[in-house]
Amino acid sequence: MNPISDLIDSALAATRMDAVDALRAFFIFAFCTILSVSLPQSLRSRFVPYGARATSTAESNSNPSPSSSKPSSSSPITRPLDCLAALKVPHGYFTQFYVASVISSLFWAVQVLSRGAAFQAVAARIRPEHLQNAMSLNQVLLCWALMLVQGTRRLVECLALSKPSSSQMWFGHWLVGVAFYVAVSVAIWIEGTGTLLAHEYTLDHVKITNVPSIRTFLCLPIFMFASGLQHDCHYYLFSLQKYTVPAHPLFNRLVCPHYTAECAIYLSLTLLAAPPGEWVNKTLLSALAFVAINLGVTAGTSRKWYAQKFGEESVRNKWNMIPGVY
């Protein structure tokens, strides 16, 4: 085994869990951590805001009200939190999320097709019940291709639609983001491992002439439409000369429609990757839960930032992210 496969095997062995269950547990643990950090004000103000929102928060914290202007020293509890919150990376490191996504997608494509050591290390840690009811080869290939398209598009957007900025984000955001994209590049195919182990596959097995299933016919347009809307939102925000209330139609009833689109993208993948007899792919469903909660917390922060900077009228009658729900 090579160092990468040794690392994978050691990590899975340490969890003492099936690889599929371990991946699901990672996403659940990640979104529970985000919730636990976002609920207490003392943690939310330190670790959740980033970019312009973090700057706004820092400015408001540096101008306390008269009633709280009495000098006071940091407590033994808040001092470590302040030190931890001070560990920041440039906001431009967001680009690295999608570098990790593209590289991971390509890496696992090579591993799966060649039955590489890393793929074998993951497959060896999957219980028989998770191998029996597996995604089809066409499902694996379609979902892998869509994940590669998503990662590539977002990477191009980050490179082409980003402006020089001195803003920063907490290193925990960066760490969790990279870990998520590395993990989801495995989640996209892991429930098809039983199929991938059944035969030696070559490009001759790829049949793009097959009639798409009803599920594909309904869910693939959701992915494409949501991707287009998200790109339109990102391009519009990039075109703004300065931070202002967005006037684009997509922002009329939503504070963060690009987050709505992101959730729709992962929802479509969750449905497209469902094994036979299942409504959803449970591993990708846990990834979708992480995406929805993570972006939901950020959307709530964005709403407060808009209201603080431009007035409550700027967000009145708008949903944060999910129309009719949140």
Walk me through the topology.
Blueprint: H1 3-15, H2 19-38, H3 41-47, H4 52-61, H5 78-85, E1 88-90, H6 94-114, H7 117-123, H8 128-132, H9 137-160, E2 168-170, H10 171-190, H11 193-198, H12 214-239, H13 257-272, H14 282-310
Antiparallel strand pairs: 1-2
Helix pairs in contact: 1-7, 2-10, 2-14, 3-5, 6-9, 6-10, 9-12, 12-13, 13-14
Characterise the protein shown here.
The chain has one domain (16-39, 85-314). It is 65% helix and 2% strand. The chain has helices spanning 3-15, 19-38, 41-47, 52-61, 78-85, 94-114, 117-123, 128-132, 137-160, 171-190, 193-198, 214-239, 257-272, 282-310, and strands spanning 88-90, 168-170. By secondary structure, the protein is an all-alpha fold. Residues 57-62 and 64-73 have low confidence and may be disordered. It has a two-stranded antiparallel ribbon with strand order 1-2. It starts with a helix and ends in a 16-residue tail after the last helix. The chain is built from 14 helices and two strands. Pfam families: Steroid_dh.
